[in-house]
Tetratricopeptide repeat protein (Limosilactobacillus oris F0423), 420 residues
Amino acid sequence: MTYSEQMLDQLQAGQLEAARSSFRQALAKDDDELLFSLGEELYGLGFLQQAQRVYLTLLERYPAEDELRTNLATIAIDEGHNDEALSYLAQVKPDSPAYLESLLVAADLYQTEEEFEVTEQKLQEAYRIAPDEPAVEFALGEFYFLIGHYDEAIRYYFELIKHGYTDFAKVDIAGRLGMCYAQSGQFKQALGYLQQVKPEYRTSDIRFQTGLTELSLGQLDAAEKELSELIEDDDQYASAYPALATALTKQHKYQQALKVAQEGLAVDQYNEQLYAQAAAIVSHLGNAKLMKKYLTKAHELDPDNLTITLQYSNFLLHQHDDKANIALLAPLTEEDEVDPQVYWNLARSYQRTEEFAQAGKDYQAAAPAYADNPTFLKELVGYYQETGQREHLLPTLRHYLELEPTDAEMQDLLAEYEEY
């Protein structure tokens, strides 16, 4: 047995002192081919410093061997020593047999630093040099997948398939295609590929995307089954709970949906969106106390989330808690840009608390956005009627009836005002 083989056996047995001794002997006595293989094995096992020492020893003996430099650069990147990695890569010239590999390593380096433009340049240069090299096609597909350029990613994944690869570097290509199509909104194509993923590659992410895609296609039973089974197998996969709750809600299974949302909150107790979703589910069950609890928590977790704030405001309006609604929304009117729904909701509360002047200001602030909204116009007519503003009521009422000509009650009101 060679010293390299002894070292690897000792490492697997946890005999670290003996492994250190064998390592020193291997560096001194094993042949260079064995040492290179030892370096690869050590790197694969995560012994980066030892692998680095092997490659440095070999580089002293073979200073023209650029593959050693690319290996050393890879180790430097793994250890966060990017300047050191760049130094190694800069020594690999375009005429070197290792230049293609150096481009891929450089792309990896720049990707870790989020310098995506340089990453793309390196990968495209590699592609020009070796357009049929699977490693390059895979690297390009993964890069474009990472930055969300899904059409580009699809192109390179298909090139891999054309070259006979259904998986590469322990990544299922059908799964990647399914994810790309799903992210670009092409759900039918996405589901076709996601269903082709081999069992050994059906990760929680793939299963979640499958369920989410089925949900997007309206295949509610299938989505419910997929997501339920995912949660059974991986109950810490937090994203599955709101998706499953949505599938159940769409089937009007509100009690089950609430139970799933509550289980999800036990896993992810700081998810304001899930609290808001739970509140929406509870609205179908008529439990105002629980609904308020969830909306209050959602708002506390993310007070700047306007969607949640307006959901909470709508609840307060429904409960006729106008003081709380005014306290919630009034500070928002001091911002540079205010959603017109804020003004509308405030106007309702101010009108009900008989603060008519402020209600009028807020109705007018909301009016441009809701000029053709029958519900808004009808409420505005009610405000003008309550405050005796006949000169504003009539044109608003006529415009409302242009939009809703069959509203007999409002037709009678118009006739009554026009009579006098």
Notes: Residues 247 and 310 are 24 Å apart (CA to CA). The longest helix spans residues 16-29. The longest strand covers residues 167-168. Strands lie at 167-168, 171-172.
